[in-house]
Amino acid sequence: MLYQVTAQFSGAGLYRGVVTLAEIGRDSTTLWKMNVYRQNDEKPERVVYFSLTQHPFQLIRKGSRTMAVPLEACAETDAKMPKCWCRDATFAVSDARDPQKVDQLQVLVATHHCILMHLPQSLVDVCLSYCLPFVPKLSSILLQDTPLTENSLDLLAREWTIPSLTDVNLSGTSPSAAGLRRLMHHMRSSTVAALNLNQCGFFDAVVEGLPHLPNLTRLELEYCLLSDTDVAHLSDVLPSTRIQTLGLKANYITERGAQSLADNLTGSQLVNLYLEKNRIGPAGFLALVRVLPQSRLRTLGCGENNIGAEELAVSELVVSLKDPRCRLQELGLSYNRLGPAGGQKLGGVLAEAKTKLLALNLDHNNLGAEGVSALASAFPCLRLEMLSLCHNGMGSRGAAALAKAFQQCPSLREVYLDGNQMGDTGCELIAESLCESKVNTLGLSRNVIHCRGAEALVRFLPRWTQLRVLALERNAIGDQGGTALASCLPNTNLEELYLQSNLLDINTTTEMTRVVPHTQLRCLFMSSYSLRSIDPSWRPLRHACAAASIARDF
Residue 78's pLDDT band (boundaries 50, 70, 90)? Predict the structure, then answer.
């Protein structure tokens, strides 16, 4: 046996199936054994044997029976198709000698999608042959980190003409230059709108084909080792394409490449540009900022680009952002060493320009309490819907400044303040200021919050009717704080709660087991990454989550 394959599927009803022990020999013959269970039962109600390589199949339910039906027998016309098709089937392929790796390799065959991830070469062509032709109304193909041979590329090219296909992800597939050119040629008559070529080489083959793809609106070229020269060639063809979203994260783009993009922005249809993890520096950022009023850009991601605070051109920023033609709505400047001085400069810019910004990301900039306070004074002048200030060391002083500003920010929907050492005092101030707002997501992980902070949250959560997601990972609320949080959950509208690594114990799990059926939770993460989460005392909570269809990590 070369591989052991396991799978799970769920139909539109009471049954689930587990496909196990698929033997793949040198002649590619495969024998599957499928156990069919009623939901939550431990013993199978029915066992089905079938061969995938001889009969591509779809799992269906008829009355109380679940069967594997050869597609060749029932896919000729829509009238002959079974009425109840299985929604999806997830296959995991691993080395039979190490079953623990089973979750690393996946194949997903769904109603509209075909996903082959991390597969060995011996399975790629077989899966493409049997999955692609029989996925009804195929709309997306994901072949992430799956090596593609010339035969694989030919099988893909055959599917490009499917009218429903709109999304293709070839990230990390390492296609040959000739194969990539052939794929781009076949895409000319396709409806593909999104193409992901992250970690793929042969950039020239991509650029040559872009002007001939009339439906392509999203292109991702991250981690492709692109130089300024490559970006200059790409920039030259942008005006002749319909690309609206361009991802160039983690390449080798400097201020020269940023200038090339800026020179062609006005003639292109670009709306979203992502340049994180490059080297454009302050000069490259300034070149892009200058053309904002003449471009269609609404999203500009420039995180981790060594922009710094000293060279931040305040006057240029004010002029561009204040221009009524500027459409920028989302700005990302994380990991740029702005420091307190940069926070003060940027706060002055935002207050003076009164921009249309809806989302601002300034994570990991060491802004400190002074920088955050300066920024907070500008927030009431904006219409921010998303704010992320994670890992900026603001402490309780910065949290107090934010809490005051938040009372004048009625449009806020998402707030991320992880890793800021605000403590119990800061947690209480933030919760009090937002409890009657429309914020639906709050991140307070890694903030040295103890039992007192958790109890402060408990006081405000029942009044916070809009909150759906609360993240409190890696704090120290302890068993007392966890129990208090659990007891108030039925009086909240929370759907996702993250409490990993919070020194939780038996009292929290007992209370959570009691209240879980009476909550609106869809996701509950409480694992402490220790033996506590696999302790038998957690078993009742696992059963309670399963009965309520709540995703969990313990």
Answer: very low
What φ, ψ does residue 230 adopt, rounded to 5°?
-60, -45
pLDDT at 131: 55
CB neighbour list of residue 363: distance below 8 Å, 6 or more residues apart: 303, 334, 335, 388, 389, 390, 391, 392, 416
Distance spanning both ends of the chain, measured CA to CA: 32
Distance between CA atoms of 455 and 477, rounded to whole angstroms? 9
The answer to whether residues 414 and 385 touch, using CB atoms and an 8 Å cutoff, is yes
CATH topology for 394-554?
A: 3.80.10
Q: Could you tell me the pTM of the whole model?
A: 0.80
Q: What is the CATH number of domain 105-216?
A: 3.80.10.10
In angstroms, the CA 34 to CA 439 distance is 46
Domain coordinates in residue numbering, the chain = 3-97, 105-216, 255-378, 394-554
Look up residue 254 and give its DSSP letter.
B
DSSP 101-170: GGGGSEEEEESSEEEEES--HHHHHHHHHHHGGGSTT--EEE-TT----HHHHHHHHHHTT-TT--EEE-
Residues 6 or more apart whose Cβ sits within 8 Å of residue 105: 92, 93, 94, 117, 118, 119, 120
Question: The tokens of 186 are what?
Answer: 């076949």
φ and ψ at 347, to 5 degrees?
A: -60, -40
Which residues does residue 299 pair with via DSSP β-bridges, in sequence order?
A: 272, 330
136: tokens are 């009804």
Q: Write the class of the CATH domain 255-378.
A: alpha beta
Looking at residue 96, the DSSP 8-state letter turns out to be T
Q: Residues 291-341: pLDDT tens digits?
A: 999 999 999 999 999 988 776 666 788 888 889 999 999 999 999 999 999
Residue 478: both structure tokens together: 């302890």
Report residue 294: phi and psi, to 5°: -90, -5
Structure-token pair, residue 475: 């704090």
Determine if residue 423 is left, alpha or beta; phi over 0 gives left, psi from -120 to 50 gives alpha, anything else beta. left
Angstrom distance (rounded) from CA 450 to CA 52: 54
DSSP state of 493: -
- 260-284 per-position pLDDT tens digit: 999 999 999 999 999 999 999 999 9
Domain 255-378 identical in fold to domain 394-554: yes
